[in-house]
């Protein structure tokens, strides 16, 4: 993406910050919001702290895909911390095929009107104008998502150019750090969306956590090569090695269909859960949604998980990831 | 009663629990998460973290914490709520869900998401009554503000009264009533431990 493509004045220019929680005042006061720039008041929007902090508030919670205001209400009633406004859930995108794009603004407006919790929406990978539109609509978070058809097979969106924060998918630590370098304020595992098969999400969560542990065990001077191999900036790699965690919140996504799926991802180190097709493609969405919320809070208490898993009706039918030909796998999108 | 090292809980149903636990650990208390009634019974004070107040309200009821928490607050247990925690502690919340539970520990009316959506979330320096060492950097994330307070409520901070702040100018964003403290913003995100220290002093003195 060239600088002129995004325009120089439409979006405040934020500076990449590697140190989420250690950000100093001078570093954060770089936002170019007009309201602040012209006077002494240090009231700034769109800082890394404000964007990453928003994700911190979602921790321990469940974010649910919804396609209508009614579904958004059901999700909020069940205790969702946010909803993802979509035209089609991943299972339907997979079944119907074709190019999947950003949702109709009317649909997003309708969902924003219907609930008081945050509303997220998806833009295609690299489609910075869809992202500009979503920001203009007032969505609270943008998911630059492999579930939609990529708009750019080389570049992701330059997310520093936006006031609204972004979440991006990752299958491993290097991919997560590249997205953070581009300005992602939250990371989620990719999993294999729309399948109800949790195995890929498990692989991605284990991979990311294992790579973090590996960095922690390395000598300082080995981190340079680790950064090279991971294709991620050295400063970020060093920070992860020191802190033992990503500098942003890590959620899980892709194939989560039961309370036990959600709890397993939490035990594997996810800080929260996205559920896509798993709720509204099941027999009793309201009950299943509530059960997944409870299992996410008490992820380490098998008695609670057993209790909430009873009588949920049919889970989504599902597809085994192995049966999907590789070119049709969504997790392979993004790099 | 004066406690050398009090036990302070963080309500851990959802939200930025970890950040509050870390902030409390810095000010020399035993900090622990609280998800069950028996865990609530063991703490000398409780932090209600940032997060989604609708979700926490629902889980408080489901996991049978609502009435025990109300009872402890009525007995005078010190509490501190940031953002969603402030909404829960208020006697009334506007722009919330009609079925949302209020703990009614502070006589005030709050408005949820009062500053706008996430794109309007911001940071600013505030003068905070009673805090040493100058202004406090405050991070507001889809934050509430206080519309009105009762006579027993002490106002600790407001949004600076400047034309650039628009409708937010002069709004109340930090309050205290007895042993219960609330802020619309998130001191747990800045590494500035002064608000947590203020709360822990309250717990020690209670």
UniProtKB/TrEMBL annotation, chain A:
EC number: 4.3.3.6
PROSITE patterns named among the record's database cross-references: PDXS_SNZ_1 (PS01235), PDXS_SNZ_2 (PS51129)
Enzyme class per UniProt: lyase
Gene3D superfamilies: Aldolase class I
Job of this protein: Catalyzes the formation of pyridoxal 5'-phosphate from ribose 5-phosphate (RBP), glyceraldehyde 3-phosphate (G3P) and ammonia. The ammonia is provided by the PdxT subunit. Can also use ribulose 5-phosphate and dihydroxyacetone phosphate as substrates, resulting from enzyme-catalyzed isomerization of RBP and G3P, respectively.
Family: Belongs to the PdxS/SNZ family.
Name this protein carries in UniProt: Pyridoxal 5'-phosphate synthase subunit PdxS
Source species: Streptoalloteichus tenebrarius (strain ATCC 17920 / DSM 40477 / JCM 4838 / CBS 697.72 / NBRC 16177 / NCIMB 11028 / NRRL B-12390 / A12253. 1 / ISP 5477) (Streptomyces tenebrarius)
TrEMBL record, chain B:
UniProt catalytic activity: aldehydo-D-ribose 5-phosphate + D-glyceraldehyde 3-phosphate + L-glutamine = pyridoxal 5'-phosphate + L-glutamate + phosphate + 3 H2O + H(+); L-glutamine + H2O = L-glutamate + NH4(+)
Pathway of action: Cofactor biosynthesis; pyridoxal 5'-phosphate biosynthesis
InterPro entries on file: Class_I_gatase-like, PdxT/SNO, PdxT/SNO_CS
Keyword NAD attached: no
The enzyme's E.C. designation: 4.3.3.6, 3.5.1.2
Entry-linked Pfam families: SNO (PF01174)
Keywords: Glutamine amidotransferase, Hydrolase, Lyase, Pyridoxal phosphate
Active site: 83 (nucleophile), 186 (charge relay system), 188 (charge relay system)
Protein residues bound to L-glutamine: 51-53, 112, 141-142
Keyword Glycoprotein: no
Summary of subunit composition and partner proteins: In the presence of PdxS, forms a dodecamer of heterodimers. Only shows activity in the heterodimer.
NCBIfam families per the UniProt record, alphabetical: PLP_synth_Pdx2
Family from the record: Belongs to the glutaminase PdxT/SNO family.
Function according to Swiss-Prot or TrEMBL: Catalyzes the hydrolysis of glutamine to glutamate and ammonia as part of the biosynthesis of pyridoxal 5'-phosphate. The resulting ammonia molecule is channeled to the active site of PdxS.
Protein name as it appears in the record: Pyridoxal 5'-phosphate synthase subunit PdxT
Native source organism of the sequence: Streptoalloteichus tenebrarius (strain ATCC 17920 / DSM 40477 / JCM 4838 / CBS 697.72 / NBRC 16177 / NCIMB 11028 / NRRL B-12390 / A12253. 1 / ISP 5477)
């Amino acid at each position: 993406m060239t600088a002129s493509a995004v325009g120089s004045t439409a979006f405040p220019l934020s500076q990449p910050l590697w140190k989420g929680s250690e950000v100093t005042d001078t570093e954060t006061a770089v936002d170019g919001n007009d309201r602040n720039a012209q006077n002494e008041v240090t009231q700034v929007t769109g800082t890394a702290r404000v964007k990453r902090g928003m994700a911190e508030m979602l921790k321990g919670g469940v974010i649910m895909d919804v396609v209508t205001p009614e579904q958004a209400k059901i999700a909020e009633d069940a205790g969702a911390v946010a909803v993802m406004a979509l035209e089609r859930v991943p299972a339907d995108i997979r079944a119907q095929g074709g190019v999947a794009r950003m949702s109709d603004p009317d649909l997003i407006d309708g969902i924003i009107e219907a609930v008081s919790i945050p509303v997220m929406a998806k833009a295609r990978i690299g489609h910075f104008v869809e992202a500009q539109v979503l920001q203009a609509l007032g969505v609270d978070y943008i998911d630059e998502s492999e579930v939609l058809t990529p708009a750019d097979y080389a570049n992701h969106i330059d997310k520093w150019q936006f006031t609204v924060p972004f979440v991006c998918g990752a299958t491993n630590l290097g991919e997560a750090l590249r997205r953070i370098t581009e300005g992602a304020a939250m990371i989620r595992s990719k999993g294999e969306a729309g399948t109800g098969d949790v195995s890929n999400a498990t692989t991605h969560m284990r991979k990311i956590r294992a790579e973090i542990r590996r960095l922690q065990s390395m000598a300082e001077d080995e981190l340079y090569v680790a950064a090279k191999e991971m294709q991620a900036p050295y400063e970020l790699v060093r920070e992860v090695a020191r802190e033992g965690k990503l500098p942003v919140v890590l959620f899980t996504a892709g194939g989560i269909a039961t309370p036990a799926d959600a709890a397993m991802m939490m035990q594997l180190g996810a800080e929260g859960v996205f559920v896509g097709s798993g709720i509204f493609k099941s027999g009793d969405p309201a009950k299943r949604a509530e059960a997944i919320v409870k299992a996410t809070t008490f992820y380490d208490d098998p008695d609670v998980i057993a209790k909430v898993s009873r009588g949920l009706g049919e889970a989504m039918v599902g597809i085994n990831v192995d049966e999907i030909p590789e070119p049709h796998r969504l997790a392979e999108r993004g790099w | 009663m004066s406690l050398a090292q009090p036990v302070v809980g963080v309500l851990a149903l959802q939200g930025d629990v970890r950040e509050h636990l870390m902030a409390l650990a810095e000010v020399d208390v035993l900090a622990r998460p609280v998800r069950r009634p028996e865990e609530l019974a063991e703490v000398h004070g409780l932090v209600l973290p940032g997060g989604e107040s609708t979700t926490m309200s629902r889980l408080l009821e489901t996991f049978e914490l609502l009435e025990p928490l109300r009872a402890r607050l009525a007995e005078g247990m010190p509490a501190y709520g940031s953002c969603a925690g402030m909404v829960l502690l208020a006697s009334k919340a506007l722009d919330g869900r009609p079925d949302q539970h209020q703990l009614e520990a502070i006589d005030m009316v709050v408005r949820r998401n009062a500053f706008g959506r996430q794109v309007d979330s911001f940071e600013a320096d505030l003068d905070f009554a009673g805090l040493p060492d100058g202004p406090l950097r405050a991070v507001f994330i889809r934050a509430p503000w206080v519309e009105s307070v009762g006579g027993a409520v002490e106002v600790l901070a407001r949004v600076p009264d400047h034309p650039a702040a628009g409708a937010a100018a002069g709004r109340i964003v930090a309050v205290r009533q007895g042993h219960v403290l609330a802020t619309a913003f998130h001191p747990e995100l800045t590494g500035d431990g002064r608000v947590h220290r203020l709360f822990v002093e309250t717990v020690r003195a209670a």
